[in-house]
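Lesson 9: reading folded outputs for more than one chain in a single document. The general rule is that every protein is listed as its sequence immediately followed by its structure tokens, and records are never interleaved. Here is the first one.
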Amino acid sequence: MNTDKPRGSKHPAIINLSALLFMLLSAPPLKAQQKAGIRGIDHVGINVPNLKQAVSFFSEVLGFTAITQIGPITLDERWKTSNRLTAATKSVTIKMVRAETGANIELFEYTPKAGKSIQPGGDNPAATHIAFYVDDINAATNYLKSKSVKVLGEPFLTPVGDTKGESWVYFETPWGSKMEFVSYPEGKEYEKKNPQVLLWSPKDVQPKKQSINNMSGTEILALLEQHLALWNEHDEMKRNKIEKAIYSPDIEMVDRHFIATGYQQVDSFVKDLQQKNPGAKFTHSRPVDTHHNIARLFWQFGPTDQPAMVKGMDLFVMEEGKVTKLYVFVEEQ
């Protein structure tokens, strides 16, 4: 038997070493995203002329939830110079709103108002827009129209190219900023080519499952008693402790005159109410009504030894054992 290796063969160790060197030399360099530690887009920031108007649009029309606010913050001269702000600008107030899926949106209101209030044209290098994915582009467009939002044309279906199958339509905010609805329920043309990397899409994110765990009547009554205790508590630390126990972090309190979101805004309202009405307390005016995770609390407010100054009803919506929505109804005097 001929045990000689065939001509041209190499020692196995040499083969393995050569393969290893080839893999090391041909491996792609570490991506800049990995070097920088980037995990994704946290938020998109936009300037608005009126913060209250912008929050109202994002919450009441687009269904976003306002979460945090800082400011007004006084701006020093060095900051204004490095960020190319006008010398007349004094302060900025910043509010963050959240969509259910995707990046947050950060709203900036500078005061006093400076610069041009007119938004840049679509072909201007400074022009930008934010696009929101929707399941049904026609239904979404009709919804905007029902809210008297200015829609720039009708939905357009891309007929050719990588984004074939995508429908989109532009619309304007009340302050003139351009935004977009986009939809591609059947995907885009480029995906058929089996690319190594696909564009991220909220379409592929599974929606949060709604809680089906109903609270018992006893649990709801206990929670509502805590709610009354919270609104009667003058110690801020104790009040904050109760808030975190019974309210969701993104709780939304809806009054006929305003909407308060999150612990800080709700607590500010409670504190202001107490300061303006020393000695007044909330008490029951009739028994509580409960239905699954919804409850009605009928209350009266005023000094305990005098007739009630005002009466009303709070409607609670609860999920996972905490209040997520609080609708306040005040009786007409």
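And here is the second record, again sequence then tokens.
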Amino acid sequence: MVVGSGYLGGRIGARIRELGGRAVLCSRRPPTARSSTGMDWRELDVRDPRACQDAVRAVAPDAVIAVHGPSDITWCERHPEEAMAAHGAGSANLAAAVGRLPVLLISTDNVFAGTRHSYSESDEVAPANAYGRAKLAAERALLETGRALVLRVSLVYGWDPDGHRPNYFTTCVRRLRAGLPVEAPADHWNTPVLVDDVAAWSTELLRTRRTGVLHLAGPERLSRYAWAGRIARGLGLDAGLVRPVDKAGTAYACRPRNACLHSEQASGLPELAGLWPLDVDEGTRRLAGPALAPERFPTVPAPRSVEE
């Protein structure tokens, strides 16, 4: 049972199917990602405790992956109560509904202050914004069950032309293909991780019933500006369209300066052998075909301040 049917939830569901399993996506709205095509879906509002109980009873899963709630960090900063209701209270409702089922929660680097270059599992949490506070509440609600694994991920990217809020990679590619400038913060740092790597880790970790907290991030610490330039060069597009700006004047102003993670534990986990995350250049090469192909429908260029 995958709670959340956005780009990441859909890709996790697709990975489960590729491995011969069955995934049911549960969310307020039907999935739009192409990876979710043909997948079972059930309507679910996690803010409703009875609906959570009914969904678990109807789906009868052997495990739950929670990747629900608004991920637009700027929106969450403007609507902190709604963010907490979806992430914090929603996860508490799931915790009460799942009984003894194992649960994996996809969490975020925004649970940290961002004053250090990078954060490991043992570092002290200090949320940088409303989104981070809501996700930390979700972590605690599920970890209290004793059967949950929290997988904190850094900035997830992929080719997502169908999403209502495309990720950073998709938005950069669209603007560059259209010959439009990309204004990218040079003082906001991430460790980007490919969506397929997150899906692969999620399914393997859930299969082993591991619990606790684990970090997943790409192997490089990059500013948004440097990364946008790498995307342009990797796809043969005009890197001169990428222009550095200060984070403070963009939609990223409420985010930690260093939204970067690393893991003290992952190298010792045998189930992750052979699943090490790709760097952004290899990730771009893998995405180049669909990213450079004509889209099915005309698209409106994204605003200059792109979101995740």
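What the second record shows: The longest helix spans residues 80-97.
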